[in-house]
Amino acid sequence: LSINSLIELSRGYFSPATIVAQEASLLEALDWYISPPTAFCIGRHFLHMIPVSSEFPLTVRHDVLEHTRFLCELSVIDYFFVTKRASSVGLAALLNAIDCNRNFPSDHRVEFLKQLEGLDDFDPNDAEIGECRDRLRELYIQGGYGPPSTVDYTEMAQRQEAVSPVSVANAFNAQGQVQGAAIAPNGTSKR
Q1: 88 contact partners, CB below 8 Å, separation of at least 6
Q2: Alpha-carbon distance 174 to 160, whole Å?
Q3: CA 177 to chain CA centroid, nearest Å
Q4: Would 183 disulfide with which of 28, 141, 153, 176, CB 3.0-4.6 Å?
Q5: In the chain, which ranges are continuous DSSP H helix?
């Protein structure tokens, strides 16, 4: 909303100076943490560090980017990621997507990791990134999306419990019933 709209909505009760002062106060209280970059946004920026070439065509880049997007969206359903930095989740999703793509050239992966290690104040081998990678793999397998043959996820696939303590998967039983409610073929619940 514009300042003029806010003045109209307040029926002239607030002046432009009052509104600007209040906005400044809110921004300062939030330490300017508004609209931070998302994990996917960060993953996409990291992917752009790898130049397009004949060995790494746009189609492979697109596939890796879409898989990164999916993994970032998957991270939203698990409370585990709430306390993690968006950069850790984004890079973990990208690295897992790269590992899942058989057409991604291995020499590009090695070069990409060298570029990451060359960044100031950034450690691609950080424990948090590793934890995020492991958790994303678990979510991917638990969701039934299947482990890619290029990565060995056998140990994680054998886990029986839900990854997240707050998981929608826990609400359903084998018959598609939700806490005593049956799911009708049209997707509605019958109580």
Answers
A1: 126, 128, 129, 132
A2: 14
A3: 29
A4: 176
A5: 3-9, 16-29, 39-47, 58-75, 86-100, 106-117, 127-142, 154-157
Amino acid identity of 114? K
Which residues on adjacent β-strands are paired with residue 183? 189
CA-only gyration radius of the chain, Å: 22
pLDDT (tens digit per residue) in 84-141: 999 999 999 999 999 999 888 888 888 888 888 888 888 888 999 999 999 999 999 9
* Spatial contact of 41 and 90, defined as CB atoms under 8 Å apart: yes
Residue 181: helix, strand or coil by DSSP? strand
Beta-carbon neighbour count of residue 39 at 10 Å? 27
Single-letter amino acid code for the residue at 20: V
Contact 159, 168 (CB under 8 A): no
Q: Give the pLDDT confidence score for residue 147 in this predicted structure.
A: 60
What is the mean pLDDT of the segment spanning 67-93?
A: 95
Percent residues over pLDDT 70 in the chain: 76
Confidence (pTM): 0.64
Q: How high is the mean pLDDT of the chain?
A: 79
Which residue has tokens 């898989």? 67
What distance in Å separates the CA atoms of residue 107 and residue 113, rounded to the nearest whole number? 10
Distance from C-alpha of 162 to C-alpha of 135, rounded to nearest angstrom: 11
Measured distance CA(115)–CA(124) in Å, rounded: 10
